[in-house]
Amino acid sequence: MKVEIFNQENTEVFETLVSGVRDCNRASLGSEEPEPLSVILRNEQYAIIAGVTGQTIYKHFLITAVWADNSLRNQGLGRKVMELAEREAHKRGCIAAQVDTLSIQAPDFYKKLGFKVMGRIPGLTLDHDRFFLMKEYPQHVV
């Protein structure tokens, strides 16, 4: 057995590990591939000014990132892209969404959208906490 430690991205390692996890999941949960889901807003110059990205799998919307340009914050853009993404996730059969965020980022934003804190790691980065949030979708359209 040989141990290797990588200090840079390695596509082969990533793909092998993810493939192994997916094989285990298929054995227990059935065959389903993740479907990317992104919603973005562009300005008149076609630059991205806000968006959300993630994937749907096993009836969950796994949110990777939500962002709005600093100069346009507090104008409802984040809410708009989240609502559109959640609507699409619900159309795909999702029953819940999940996200994690730091205390300096957006836990209150997600709470206003109906997410509930499922876990918290205090002091993860100096004095900033990490929050894990989830939102269950009702059976009717979001």
How would you characterize this protein structure?
The protein has 142 residues and is α+β, with helices and mostly antiparallel strands. It has a single domain, classed as Gcn5-related N-acetyltransferase (GNAT) (Aminopeptidase, 3-Layer(aba) Sandwich), CATH 3.40.630.30. Helix content is 28%, strand content 37%. A six-stranded mixed beta sheet has the order 1-2-3-4-6-5. The longest helix is centred in the first third of the chain and has 19 residues. It is globular and about 55 Å long. The mean pLDDT is 89.
Strand percent estimate: 35-45%
Distance between the termini: 51 Å
Number of domains: 1
Question: Uncertain regions: pLDDT < 50 for 5+ in a row?
Answer: none
The amount of helix comes to 25-40%
Assigned CATH class:
Alpha Beta
Strand order of the largest sheet: 1-2-3-4-6-5
- On the 0 to 100 scale, the average pLDDT is 89
Choose one word for the global shape: globular
What letter string, H or E per element, gives the SSE order? HEEEHEHEE
Q: Number of DSSP helices?
A: 3
Class computed from helices, strands and strand pairing: alpha+beta
Reported by name, the CATH topology is Aminopeptidase
Number of strands: 6
Radius of gyration: 17 Å
CATH superfamily: Gcn5-related N-acetyltransferase (GNAT)
CATH architecture: 3-Layer(aba) Sandwich
SSE layout:
Layout: H1 11-29, E1 35-42, E2 48-57, E3 60-68, H2 77-91, E4 96-102, H3 107-112, E5 116-125, E6 128-136
Parallel strand pairs: 3-4
Antiparallel strand pairs: 1-2, 2-3, 4-6, 5-6
